[in-house]
Design brief:
3 helices; 2 domains; 541 residues; Jelly Rolls
């Protein structure tokens, strides 16, 4: 028998059914996608007087590709707990309807700020294809601090004609991040844009605009950040955690290092440098995208970050703009100034009161020179439910080890794989179930495997210390693995949608094989998985 078959036949997973009593903590149904819209997009979180305002872009119903997919509305939900959310009955901002409306083809990303009048203001991007695709910055005003209702602008913001706007492209001038810079006594606006000249593929930069009243803006002569290595940095934000460091965060949609990442500076003007951490400042992979954050209520040394995971259109195999909003995450600073991302304590607290009995055990796997796999008797994620598998490891001695997800009896599945680098430092990667072959081997074997945009390594972090527990969050088809201050997120394709194509005997359909939801594996070694637990909570209507 194969190692997998043997492990399944002799499974000694000792599960203790734990009945826990406590408050009925629940996720809010509809948090992930606004009802009546196709998908959630970029988030704009803002905290005011203990209340989190989570603004977000929403794609119109029944849309998939550009341009209708990005004709976004701004929607909002609020919370004081980060678990239970209340959604506004109507969108906050709706695109214009006239042909010359500045946001006719989309009300895009921006930010919220409290103005000199004590009221909430929104700055956002207007997109109009009839104007050559030009992007402009628009300013919506509210008459109160909580932003009960916003008045849309009739024209873009006023920019001093003598300032340096001509240095930047007009077709990429978006995602304004506005905040009060107390040290300089002025409002700052960081804008995602491109230099108007220079190497075409790498002239992406961040412009800096300043204002004393939010009404008239001046473009600084030099960009705040121009690294000469990106097409356009999206969804920027700039903040400090009170530790003497300033963090410049943005998202990049092109490789290398696609995803949301951060840079570190000694002042808000930089210079900003990549941290020397496991992934050059990347929090996650390319499928957890356009992350934005706000200060944790009552604690400016921490921030809460939100982002979405791309939808995938199975009809044409393309990844889409927008998708599913995943649970908030907490950002803190390590003593060396690097940033750490972890599940919000409120989410972990909620998981201690599961809707179903939890499983707790330990597993010892290991055969010299052999890959051993064991399936765990865990249910698949139910619609509207959040599952959490957590464990720690003690002095592992193996070539690699980790978690199998959605795998079959042929050991085809997704792996969260840990490989030793040095001492207690590990490389951790989320690997696809079917790495593609070179063309020669496909010709020789007759097997053809899709060459996906993400490649065989969906997400990788290069140097992680396993000095704490690993938490794997599962929500329907989305996996989020929290490991050593980094996260690995991906949307797994439906079962049977990623078969091996065989030119001689047809399609080898993996959907006909028995699928195991979660398992453990150890390659050539010995690993003790300690404090192995599983909990699940459902959302409330």
């Amino acid at each position: 028998m194969s190692a997998l078959t043997t492990a399944l036949a002799h499974s000694d997973f000792l599960a203790v059914m734990i009945s826990k009593q406590g408050p009925p903590a629940r996720l809010t149904a509809g948090y992930n996608r606004p009802p009546g819209f196709a998908a959630s997009g970029d988030t704009i979180p803002f905290s005011v007087d203990g209340t989190y305002h989570l603004f977000g872009l929403a794609s119109p119903a029944n849309t998939t590709h550009h341009p209708p997919r990005v004709r976004c509305n701004w929607v909002r939900q609020t919370s004081t707990s980060l678990v239970s959310w209340k959604r506004d009955a109507a969108p906050v901002i709706v695109p214009g309807t006239s042909e010359d409306a500045f946001d006719r083809d989309g009300s895009w990303t921006g930010s919220a700020v409290i103005g000199p009048d004590g009221n909430m203001h929104i700055f956002y991007t207007g997109y109009n294809l009839h104007n050559g695709g030009a992007q402009v910055i628009l300013h919506a005003r509210s008459s109160d601090r909580q932003g009960t209702k916003f008045e849309k602008p009739q024209s873009p913001i006023t920019i001093d004609a003598s300032s340096s706007l001509s240095r930047f492209e007009v077709t990429d001038f978006r995602d304004p991040y506005v905040f009060w810079n107390n040290a300089e006594g002025t409002f700052w606006m960081v804008v995602a844009t491109r230099l108007s000249s220079g190497p075409y593929w790498t002239r992406g930069c961040l412009a800096l605009l300043t204002s004393v009243d939010l009404e008239s803006w001046t473009v600084e002569p030099e960009p705040l950040y121009a690294p000469n290595n990106i097409f356009c940095p999206e969804c920027p934000e700039l903040w400090t955690l009170g530790n003497g460091k300033w963090y410049l965060v943005y998202s990049r949609f092109s490789a290398p290092a696609a995803g949301t990442l951060y840079l570190v500076g000694e002042s808000p003007r930089g210079p900003f440098r990549s941290p020397r951490d496991a992934s050059g400042g990347r929090f996650d992979g390319r499928r957890w995208y356009a992350a934005k954050s706000c200060p944790r209520a009552g604690d400016p040394t921490r921030r809460v970050s939100f982002a979405w995971v791309h939808d995938r259109n199975e009809a044409d195999g393309k990844w889409l703009w927008g998708g599913t909003l995943v649970q908030p995450r907490e950002i803190t600073a390590a003593p060396d100034g690097s940033l750490v991302m972890s599940p919000c304590p409120e989410i972990l607290d909620m998981m201690t009161f599961p809707d179903i009995a939890s499983l707790e055990a330990e597993e010892h796997l290991g055969l010299p020179g052999v890959t051993e796999v064991k399936s765990l008797p865990l249910p698949r994620p139910r619609p509207g439910a959040l599952h959490c598998l957590s464990f720690s490891v003690s002095k592992p001695d193996a070539k690699s080890f980790g978690v199998f997800l959605e795998f079959d009896d042929d050991m085809r599945g997704y792996r969260l794989a840990f490989e030793p680098v040095a001492g207690d430092v590990y490389s951790v990667a989320l690997l696809t179930d079917l790495p593609p072959l070179d063309d020669f081997w496909e010709d020789l074997t007759g097997h053809s495997i899709d060459k996906l945009v993400d490649g065989a390594e969906l997400v990788r972090h290069g140097a992680i210390k396993l000095d704490g527990s690993v938490s794997v969050m599962l929500s329907e088809d989305i996996v989020e693995a929290f490991v050593g201050g980094k996260v690995l997120t991906y949307r797994l394709p439906p079962r049977g949608k990623n078969p091996v194509r065989d030119d001689h005997i047809g399609v080898i359909d993996s959907s006909s094989k028995k699928i195991h939801h979660v398992g453990l594996f150890v390659e050539d070694g010995d690993v003790l998985f300690e404090s192995l637990s599983f909990t699940s909570v459902d959302s409330q209507a």
